[in-house]
């Protein structure tokens, strides 16, 4: 099984693909989280009725296969609008909103988990809304939301395997390129799968550990 | 008098605002770069060498076209379905990507005259009893999704009313499935089939027969309205054949033998 | 800008084909959920069994399902098993791939749900003379499924979305497969995928709404 034509330069090529997977994930999770926090707070703050349009738009990202979102966004931006935008930008853009859509739910859930009485107590002590949000809600909501957020970030990393469709050469795509040349599909795919697993598994475990630890007190 | 002054003024302003309409051909020459979309998982037309750099017939063809235009070539990797979006978005100027010139596609993009022509072979798993292409009837067959041969084969399976058609995403997947015995047979270009049988990467496959499709003519594509560029490329293709470069590239990438005739007897163009 | 001519008519002509594909998509999602829930319950029992080998099987299954891309899992069902001479049609490969993924995630949900059920209940049931299986089946499982109802609905939506990955195993009768097939012929990418997106949206909405109705009926106290 390990009798392979894989050379060092191929391994570097694979590593570049893996690097692309991590970059796309990092950018998308970063912007997705910021957007998600903003959307989540807005949704909580203005109530379900006024937030309905926002909820609707975010819901679309959770109701359509990511593959179709990518194809559609790419076709829209490039062929309909005729903009010169790289596949990388399209991929990061779509994945950011995709992340934000899920993150907004997590943020809202986190805020709702903070007891109302506690917040009223804080406000009655003279804290402003901003102080209440940063000193009371933020630390408490983070405890509730962080494990889910870690799950989301890992989900985005796994889902980023789909950005090959807009010409981004990430891990799975670079694996496929090597498969085409070396014709050792199963071996190469095992390497690819192992990589995802090695990144995802420890972080997922850490998330589970946090959840367990923080839910005790 | 006053109005005519005004008219002249407006006209002058318009001329300043919109300088002579430069078309894509002018743009390419002015920018000094020709960006070609090439499919790189389609050997021998496009693939990657040991350092994962693009090589192949289409890659050389793009380089030749760039040289003729006096510009440098830039190869942009594309998949079969992504050819059109990358053209429309201006990410590339032309696609040198073995695009079959179907009437359906010509509704959306502009085709040149054919620059290459494929013949297709029927390749089968050795364990399957097959003598001619017609033995594919009732079998499980497959091809690379979105290609000319896939569309033909799917049509045949529908016509026969038995058997199953499977469109895999890449050529490599098709041959893997064939080698594993998941597919009984496939239709692929003679070039690809021979290369794959010879390489030994896919044990247990054999070439059975030629597929009876009309030759699969492929053309260069660009935006539908870029007549200047299409005209230029038509002449370029003509010159490639005339100067013997076409035969030279054929020998380099495909092998010994006569390259396919790109004319059709009995009809213009 | 906007030198693109929409051809909605051409794309809309394909609507009947796409709706047929949507039926296949829903069929796969429903079957994969049924299989996934069954396996997840078995995996949960494995974990509860206290037998090392069985819990190892369950743990491996759950970790692989949760820590690799679904695309990878589906591909491996088709080509990985194919390497061992086990040939599955595209339909079965996709179905089993999604069911594998569903089972992994659901087993994890069930584990979370079990934590919410006091252990004293099992002991009480056992002291009433029930066997461990009876206790699980009659007392614990109904509560477990009730607590995990929302996650199960989410997983169902995921199953619908995952059918779009079938293209890697040559699946061409589901909604995504039909759409990309039409796209290869006509290159009307935007129009075709926009229609597919609307259909997907309607399907997932139908699922979440009906789940809410079902939950309202089932879980009235």
UniProtKB/TrEMBL annotation, chain A:
UniProt KW Cell membrane keyword: yes
Subcellular location: Cell inner membrane; Cell membrane
Topological type in the membrane: Multi-pass membrane protein
Organism the protein comes from: Albidovulum sediminis
Chief location of this protein within or outside the cell: membrane
PROSITE patterns: ABC_TM1 (PS50928)
Protein name, as recorded: Amino acid ABC transporter permease
Pfam families, per database record: BPD_transp_1
Record flagged with keyword Transmembrane helix: yes
Segments traversing the membrane: 20-42, 54-77, 83-104, 186-204
Keywords, comma-separated and alphabetical: Amino-acid transport, Cell membrane, Membrane, Transmembrane, Transmembrane helix, Transport
Family listed: Belongs to the binding-protein-dependent transport system permease family. HisMQ subfamily.
Residues of the ABC transmembrane type-1 domain: 18-207
Automatic annotation (TrEMBL), chain C:
Entry membrane topology: Multi-pass membrane protein
Keywords noted in UniProt: Amino-acid transport, Cell membrane, Membrane, Transmembrane, Transmembrane helix, Transport
SUPFAM superfamilies on file: MetI-like
Coiled coil: none
Ranges for domain ABC transmembrane type-1: 22-211
Gene3D superfamilies to which the protein is assigned, alphabetical: MetI-like
Subcellular locations according to the entry: Cell inner membrane; Cell membrane
Pfam annotation, one family: BPD_transp_1
Cross-referenced InterPro entries: AA_ABC_transptr_permease_3TM, ArtM/GltK/GlnP/TcyL/YhdX-like, MetI-like, MetI-like_sf
Transmembrane segments: 22-46, 156-173, 193-215
Protein family: Belongs to the binding-protein-dependent transport system permease family. HisMQ subfamily.
Name of the protein this chain belongs to: Amino acid ABC transporter permease
Species of origin: Albidovulum sediminis
Lineage of origin: Bacteria, Pseudomonadati, Pseudomonadota, Alphaproteobacteria, Rhodobacterales
């Amino acid at each position: 099984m390990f009798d392979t034509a894989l050379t060092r330069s191929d391994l570097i090529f694979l590593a570049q693909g893996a690097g692309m997977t991590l970059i796309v994930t990092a950018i998308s999770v970063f912007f997705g989280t910021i957007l998600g926090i903003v959307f989540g707070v807005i949704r909580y703050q203005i109530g379900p009725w006024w937030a309905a349009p926002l909820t609707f738009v975010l819901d679309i990202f959770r109701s359509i296969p990511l593959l179709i979102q990518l194809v559609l966004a790419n076709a829209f931006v490039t062929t309909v609008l005729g903009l010169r935008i790289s596949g990388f930008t399209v991929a990061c853009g779509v994945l950011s909103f995709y992340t934000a859509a899920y993150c907004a739910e997590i943020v809202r859930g986190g805020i709702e988990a903070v007891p109302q009485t506690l917040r009223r107590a804080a406000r009655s002590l003279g804290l402003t809304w901003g102080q209440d949000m940063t000193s009371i809600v933020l630390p408490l909501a983070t405890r509730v939301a962080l494990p889910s957020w870690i799950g989301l970030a890992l989900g985005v990393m796994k889902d980023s395997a789909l950005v090959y469709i807009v010409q981004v050469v990430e891990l799975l795509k670079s694996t496929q390129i090597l498969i085409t040349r070396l014709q050792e599909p199963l071996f190469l795919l095992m390497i690819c799968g192992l990589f995802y697993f090695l990144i995802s598994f420890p972080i997922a475990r850490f998330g589970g550990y946090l959840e367990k630890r923080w839910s005790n007190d | 008098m006053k109005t005519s002054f005004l008219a002249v003024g407006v006209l002058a302003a318009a001329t300043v605002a919109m300088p002579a309409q430069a078309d894509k051909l002018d743009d390419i020459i002015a920018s000094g770069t020709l960006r070609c979309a090439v499919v790189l998982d389609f050997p021998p037309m496009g693939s990657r060498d040991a350092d994962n750099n693009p090589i192949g017939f289409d890659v050389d063809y793009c380089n030749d076209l760039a040289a003729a235009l006096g510009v440098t070539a830039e190869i942009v990797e594309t998949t079969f379905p992504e050819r059109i979006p990358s053209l429309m978005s201006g990410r590339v100027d032309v696609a040198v990507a073995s695009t079959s010139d179907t009437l359906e596609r010509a509704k959306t993009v502009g085709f040149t005259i054919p620059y290459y022509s494929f013949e297709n072979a029927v390749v089968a798993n050795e364990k399957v009893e097959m003598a001619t292409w017609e033995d594919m009837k009732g079998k499980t067959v497959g091809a690379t999704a979105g290609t000319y041969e896939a569309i033909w084969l799917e049509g045949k399976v529908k016509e026969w009313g038995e058997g199953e058609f499977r469109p895999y995403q890449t050529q490599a997947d098709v041959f893997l499935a064939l080698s594993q015995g998941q597919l009984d047979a496939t239709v692929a270009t003679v070039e690809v089939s021979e290369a794959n049988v010879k390489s030994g990467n896919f044990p247990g496959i054999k070439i059975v027969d030629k597929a009876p499709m009309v030759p699969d003519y492929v053309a260069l594509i660009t935006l539908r309205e870029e007549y200047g560029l299409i005209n230029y490329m038509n002449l370029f293709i003509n010159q490639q054949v005339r100067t013997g470069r076409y035969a030279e590239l054929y020998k380099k990438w495909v092998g010994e033998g006569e390259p396919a005739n790109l004319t059709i007897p009995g009809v213009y163009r | 800008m906007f030198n693109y001519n929409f051809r909605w008519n051409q794309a809309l002509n394909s609507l009947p084909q796409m709706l047929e594909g949507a039926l296949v998509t829903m069929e796969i999602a429903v079957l994969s959920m049924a299989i996934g829930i069954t396996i997840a319950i078995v995996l949960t029992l494995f974990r509860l069994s206290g037998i090392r080998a069985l819990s190892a099987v369950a743990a491996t299954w759950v970790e692989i399902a949760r820590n690799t891309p679904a695309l990878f899992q589906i591909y491996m069902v088709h080509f990985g098993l194919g390497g061992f001479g086990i040939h599955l049609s595209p339909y079965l490969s996709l179905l089993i791939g999604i069911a594998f993924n569903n089972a992994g995630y659901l087993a994890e949900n069930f584990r979370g749900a079990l934590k919410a059920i006091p252990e004293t209940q099992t002991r009480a049931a056992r002291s009433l003379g029930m066997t461990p299986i009876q206790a699980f089946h009659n007392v614990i499982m109904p509560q477990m499924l009730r607590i995990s109802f929302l996650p199960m609905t989410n997983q169902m939506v995921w199953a619908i979305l995952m059918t779009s990955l079938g293209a890697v195993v040559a699946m061409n009768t589901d909604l995504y497969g039909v759409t990309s097939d039409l796209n290869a012929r006509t290159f009307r990418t935007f129009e075709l995928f926009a229609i597919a997106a609307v259909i997907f949206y309607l399907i997932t909405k139908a699922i979440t709404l009906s789940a809410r109705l079902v939950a309202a009926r089932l879980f009235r106290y």
